[in-house]
């Protein structure tokens, strides 16, 4: 039985707490910590049988019976907490992104390497049944040599402008998942990025210096070209589709709905909208990523989303930002060189 | 927290044990009992944190801290165990069917009535997301006045001949779920049944006196006609579809798959087969039916599948058997009269 | 070049006239005849380049340059015109049904046999791309041994009560196409029929002595069971689906729409309704059936829908009528015996 | 009745000849001309009732009874024949592209303007039922403000290397249809193009100086961004899909197949491959574009694909070529300026 401590019990911390309690074998949440701990959050913890609730995360790090830590604090805390937890001898699961700063991610990577502890980044979509079906088919050679990879990723609603301002921008906050998907589905690395960004949802997002809509073209080391289309708002819900096309065929996934019921009536043949947003769509994936992390600890195998997997999408995101800003394709070599990688 | 005892930990007993441990809030399995208890089953129980494992179910009934009992023993034990558990003051969840004998079901109904305890029958499909989507649309009046109800229900593989011989026959063992679905989706009662049965899967099933394929037509009290098509074997997996057609439109559901990935290749555009069988297809429904049962206990509300709901499909099944045997439509009145109902 | 005369230029006669002019190679309409010929119909004929327009069909039969006749008059004229045309040495394409009277159909069959002329009945659905895809797969053995055949056939709107009264009843007017489909898809003959009819669309149809909704179960000589569901009105349009299920799999077809466009919006994911009715749905099939008839004449091969194919569905329809009236399964042997067949 | 002459009766010339004979009202092919006229092509013409067959197209231009000319000769002949035919007083339907040379297209535009004759370019996809369904929904405001437009366009097999060498390159030969689609679906103009081209199908195509795979991003005047993905070879057939996403929803189309039959078997749930290539997929569109051209002549209305519509996609194609070659986004302004537009 792996004892887990969760640092940060906002929305995503609670998702993990509940899915560990309900779905993850051989693991239990022993303690949670949050500086804004209150009656409500204590009651939530107790309802899951979690007895230890702290405002100070250091109590979790100091508890020798806790094997692993989930870092679900705000993004700016991800890298310092990662380092501190690893140094305290804990296995670490860190929500994405590790950091917006490449320098800080590099520090985390250094500590991961020397710590001998497991480190996994929260790219939950790798554990989704649909995306996995593509990845497995591609890895098994079913589609032959890859030629074109397409990802559609649209949110049902934009974040608040306050969040937009601290998010690192759409490419680092939202598209980062899609950059990870390109790497995951292709099993290859990105060499060049061209991003065409626009503001079509809310002018305030533009005024905050960000885009809310984008088409991003990525040239891959394996010779394939990937294209991502993003929008911060789709009125019909969370749009999460992908396709890998190759010499032996194409494999594609579409959205999931709460049922497959179809109503044929006077106004057409109507199916349900996609599941609303990431919590609904990736509910099972959240449980499976933690189960996978727990499994890596127990069996002492590499995690399926390594610290390096946490670094790469941030580099791609920085390239996309630069590309959109300068309206030219940006080589990843250029980005790596700038950061001494 | 509702304490539950499970009597019988074969396949379906274990499904319930695991889903309660993993998914059902406000409930825990305190004890299991099985006459064939062995190392393996004890280990299984312990892995879920169930400490009390008995060969004699009476220990469960005698435990005053146990609130509710799940009866997952063989069918011939369902009705006596139901009565004994109710009389011991337990709420009872009983796997379907309550019994093949109408007389025994009547006895159970009598005890349920006087016991003041909750009683729920294991018609799990009522808790499936797809079937529920139809039921809710119909109940909300979306399809208008019902005209035609269609259910396709085909298993991926036939049971063993040994099981066929004691199963009560396909209509009582397999179609019984579809009879329940007709009642659930329509919200109406069956008045007449015509069953055309045949043996197309395995002659040995015919030699055992049963059919393995059937088309069953049911005339309903609300004026609609329902039709069920059954087969004990579909080479592509568990086929579970339904449609309700009415004056304002038709609502239909199709099968679920493990992913919605579609592969376009030289040989066509290939989607995944349906989920293999009932354990895969109705995994969530099994958890939800117990959650619903627990909820009915906690909130003291009627269960969503009553003892009466356990009786009706058996009556319809007996009518279907008689119809297939005599090759004529059988009125439910005729069946009810024969049993003094 | 086959010269064709069309007798009767109501709706279906015009469909054939136009499709021959536009789509059928090696054939042309030389003359049309209709007792209600007027300015409008003459203009229609001229617009297709048809110069000869008569009120008296006998002028068509007397024209030695006309090779073949299409009988598109009212149903009661089908059999006498068939006989007269065959005796005049014409190949005959006759709209369905040949007649409601088995005696009259038998007379037609006798004349067909001795005439040495081609005779084809207008079961247009045999020439539809979707139904053909099923038939070809079944005939090729792709589904293995047939077990269950399902046909859904619902009209977008009921005919007028005046038409209902002379139509011969729903089973002979509408279901007759589905009876033909059962024979066509299965390649087998019907041995027994059970029809559960009801009036759910319009009480006036019931007052006229007919049903407007039905589930018909058919036991086939090849061991399979077929089931047809019919309704005179589906608010979402013409519903024409089918499925053949066998030991190696199931093949099914769904409706066609005017485009496959799907709109994802706030209210769901909306596809188009089915094509409205038979003219839209079977436009190409109407052309292909005549092309097939023309081809049979030119190559001197049997027609793909013979006079015998015209007789069988009427027998099945009579069995269905009797079954619904007497509420019992009716053997086709019983029907055949009654007509000395 | 509009009399038509066809210049060039290779593959596409014959498609038009047959569809005019079979499907286009108020028009007939009076003459065809082809320098390579032979027994075979004369027999083909005669079979359609076309009596006048010439090796010299000037005979068509000299025939005062011929109203309109279809230019189906090789691409290098399109612009000189357009000019000559217009000057001979004929309405002109010209296969795409008008020319690879902007200068020559400009000359054609000048003659079109002064001639007072109809001129239509052969962008057949505008007349396809699926693409039209998107265009109509967009034009009707159903999707709100456009944000993202996606077009997938993949051929089943690459052209010969000989053809590749004279084709003008993939962007001008194949993608040109997709550039037209972007303009047609959006009703807006392209302002900037970024093309990422690669060679993934056949190295010989690369050696011939062309690409066979591409992702092209287009920024539109209306604020939307479009993305096209192309490949010269998809092993599953002709892949022609599109989607327009906007503030009120997304509308998308998928491929057409010869039937919608689906086979569920041991290896999955298998639908048919898309229709093989453009002749199969756009059969009806070819007829409808000529019917539309004929209609514009008869009613003296503008054609639905003007000479200007013939120019724009070539400009976009030249921008795409330049973008791929120089690996930077190219403004259409830059291209227009280079050609004095």
Automatic annotation (TrEMBL), chains A, B, C, D:
Gene3D superfamilies for this protein: Dihydrodipicolinate Reductase, domain 2, NAD(P)-binding Rossmann-like Domain
Record bears the keyword Oxidoreductase: yes
Origin: domain of life: Bacteria
Keywords attached to this entry: Oxidoreductase
GO molecular function, one term: nucleotide binding
Segments forming domain GFO/IDH/MocA-like oxidoreductase: 131-251
Pfam family, one: GFO_IDH_MocA_C3
Family designation: Belongs to the Gfo/Idh/MocA family.
Name of the protein this chain belongs to: Myo-inositol 2-dehydrogenase
Native organism: Propionispira arboris
């Amino acid at each position: 039985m792996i004892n887990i401590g969760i640092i940060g019990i906002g929305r995503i911390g609670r998702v993990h707490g509940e899915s560990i309690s309900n779905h993850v074998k051989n693991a239990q949440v022993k303690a949670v910590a949050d500086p804004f701990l209150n009656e409500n959050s204590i009651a939530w913890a107790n309802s899951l049988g979690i007895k230890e609730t702290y405002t100070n995360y250091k109590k979790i790090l100091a508890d020798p019976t806790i094997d692993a830590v989930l870092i679900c604090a705000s993004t700016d805390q991800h890298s310092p907490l990662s380092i501190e937890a690893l140094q305290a001898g804990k296995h670490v699961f860190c929500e994405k992104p590790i950091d917006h700063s490449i320098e800080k991610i590099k520090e985390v990577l250094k500590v991961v390497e020397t710590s001998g502890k497991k480190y996994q980044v929260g790219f939950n979509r790798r554990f989704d049944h649909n995306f996995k079906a593509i990845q497995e088919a591609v890895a098994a050679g079913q589609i032959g040599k890859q030629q074109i990879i397409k990802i559609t990723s649209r949110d049902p609603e934009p974040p608040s402008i306050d969040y937009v301002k601290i998010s690192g921008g759409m490419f680092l906050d939202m598209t980062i998942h899609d950059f990870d998907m390109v790497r995951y589905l292709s099993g290859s690395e990105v060499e060049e990025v061209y991003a065409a960004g626009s503001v079509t949802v809310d002018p305030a997002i533009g005024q905050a210096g960000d885009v809310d809509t984008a088409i991003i073209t990525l040239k891959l080391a394996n010779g394939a070209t990937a294209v991502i289309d993003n929008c911060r708002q789709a009125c019909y819900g969370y749009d999460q589709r992908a396709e890998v096309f190759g010499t032996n065929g194409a494999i594609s996934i579409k959205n999931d709905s709460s049922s497959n019921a179809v109503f044929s009536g006077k106004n057409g043949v109507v199916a349900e909208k996609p599941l609303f947003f990431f919590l609904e769509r990736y509910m099972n994936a959240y449980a499976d990523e933690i189960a996978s992390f727990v499994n890596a600890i127990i069996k002492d195998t590499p995690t399926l989303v390594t610290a390096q997997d946490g670094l790469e999408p941030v580099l791609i995101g920085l390239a996309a930002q630069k590309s959109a800003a300068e309206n030219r394709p940006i080589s990843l070599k250029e980005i790596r060189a700038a950061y001494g990688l």
